[in-house]
User: Fold this.
Amino acid sequence: MIKKEEVKHIAKLARISLNQEEIEQMQKELSSILDYFKLLNELDVSEVNPAFYSIPLKNVIREDIIKEIDEDERDKMLEQVPWREERYIKVKEILR
Amino acid sequence: MKVEDLTIKNIHQGLLKKEFSASEITQAYLDRIKSQDEKINAFLRISEDLALTQAEKVDQLISEGKSISVLAGVPMAIKDNILVKDLKSTAGSKILENYIAPFDATCIKKLKKAETVFLGKTNLDEFGMGASTENSAFKKTFNPHDLSRVPGGSSGGSAAAVANNECCCALGSDTGGSVRQPASFCGVVGLRPTYGAVSRYGLIAFASSLDQIGPIAKNIEDAKIIFDIIKGKDEKDSTSVETQSFSHSVTQSLSDLVIGVPKEYFKEGIDKEVREAIEKVIKKAEKQGAKIEEVPLAHTKYALACYYLISPSEASANLARYDGIRYGKSEIENPEIQSLMDVYLKTRGEGFGVEVKRRIMLGTYALSAGYYDAYYLKAQKVRTLIKQDFEEAFKKVDVIFTPVSPTLPFKIGERKKDPLQMYLSDVLTVSAGLAGIPALSLPVEKVKGLPIGLQIIGKPFQESEIFKVGQFVEKLVH
Assistant:
């Protein structure tokens, strides 16, 4: 069983606030899922390379040129911003 | 004209012969949705204005004597995690409840160019995380074959809408089985394309090394038509590939075919009805001359654990973007909140549903210092073994036949309580996703009024072979 403190730590890393009830629930459920993952310990993978992607990928490079964004698209994106002034996105104070 | 009988092909022919107009067809589907959808809840939103405008345009093209594509005027439904410009796209999440897509997904752009008609957006498990569509933040969708049962998930809305003739065809997305399993549960055809076959640009990301958009349709021919339009390279998705990579099928009949059958997919935990239905199809194919070969997929039993480490890890990174700053639900103007950190914590705590939180937590844990090697890296190594199993098998066989789901469609609420129980629904579909290979679900039988799907797994970029084989099987079972 993972510890309650650990659940709280992970929630903080994940930037998710959880109430007391959720923490307890999460502790139980994560523990049983992590237990299930122990199945993988049957396998010796010390000599195996990780896959990461299913197909071979290489970095894709393009010219570093500025592309104008469609104005309508830009305005519509800005309209989605929860807190802004004109074209500036506002955040809470981060320096005091 | 009855919507029950319509396929892409006969809509196209009907339009060309002027048996009906695109507007009439579209109106017929809209009427059907209005009278039927409150029963199954397949749609989250109807885009009536857009649909009728698109249909009028097709009618105008026809009246001007212009040539039209085979998809022109075909009424389609779109899973709500795929962006259609100026329409709400929520991914089934409260955090995107009011999000209006500022641009079209690449596949939508292609479908618009083909003059397809968009009827509306369909329900899904929040961000695609689930196997029953019960994890939608908005409503539950019911299986049209039995309203007390789930339609599968996460593309449950799209599959149910097609099955209930509320659209001619639909788009879904598949990460670990989210197109194939609901297609199987609803008795329709669903394709998960090869990774890279269809651009993911404009698909709200869940797990980027696994997500693929795929068609859901009434038959193989329709699925193929949609796939051929949406596939191909897109500069906005660096993992998408050139169309030349796709091979053409040369198979002429079932007797040209070697079908692989992995015994690992027919073991305990698979319902007797499901196993027998699939074995029956395999026997029929054998009678028609197909060669059946047993192939080992030895690491199958590890696939589910592997998938449930990799996909939540990727999700925990992808979903970091929902921070309440740039778009989506936000607590930033909540007067009780002072710090930026609290904006994040509260926005995400309130905005995400239980399953999404669980997976973000799981992924964050698997990627965190001290656990990375033991969980995440290990899973990626096991993924290599799963991929190699398929590579070996496909040296000997052309396609692989398995069930899609280990069980018949289950009851609403039956698995909601225990997350691990819900994850087990994906046990037969996650492997193809991890290996990045194409797989299709084809309805082959109904038992107790409930559909059973055959999974046809193919080699990378050999969707055309899967479709060809699927059409042979369609003839065998109908």
Q: What stands out?
A: Chain A has a mean pLDDT of 93.
